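Q: I have 236 residues here and want to know how they pack in 3D. Can you give me a structure?
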Amino acid sequence: MGNPQTERRKAQKIRAKARAARSLSVADSGISVTSVAAHKSTPVEAISAPKANAKASVNPSDPIHAFFRKYPTFNFNPAANYLDEFERLRKQQKWPTKKQLKKSSNQKTPQQLDKEEAYQRIKGAFGTAVAAAFGQDFGTNVEDLSAWREICEPLEIEPEQETVRGYKKLMKKTHVNLVDLHVYRRQRGVGVPRPELFRNVWELRKYTMEEEKIFPKAQAKGTLLKFLLRKIFSAS
């Protein structure tokens, strides 16, 4: 039988190590404990903002950063969610709101219609930039095994076979919004939750259309993104 005081010290050390290990496992995951439990998409308003001292700078080779640089009066924050940043830009530029866009055209003046048309072109340019950034971040070659790993790793899913064919088979039955996946890939260290995995393609389509989180198909032609988009815009 050992000394009681010595045994107590040993027990305290063991408990301390256990607490440290639990803390490390949460920190290494890159997401908050709440995000792990919820495992759901979160409205823009609920997404945690990046820390004020987050080290980030504008990268001229990043298509999304390049898009925002076209507006020199806008104080772009490269550490923030790019969807939030586009909404801030919309407000600054006084571009139309969703409610205004839904109004019938016969209720609008020619000036309003011209402004809406210009805004739709800007939204298209932003979508093109996001699609290009998706390719930079995940890869573009549909036959590249490492690109498929980059896609599936944030979702914590693995194929039965570690092959391109295995990953294609897995993703055909995985229903996730690709914009949410991309935002999580870029923001996972600042409180953005893992994107929701929907039960079927119909639920995914409904969410995608309601939230207007859509990649332009024209910019995805012949890429990995194109393969992933097919089940959103087709009936199968």
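Q: Anything worth noting?
A: The beta strands are 175-176, 197-198. Residues 110-138 form the longest helix (29 residues).
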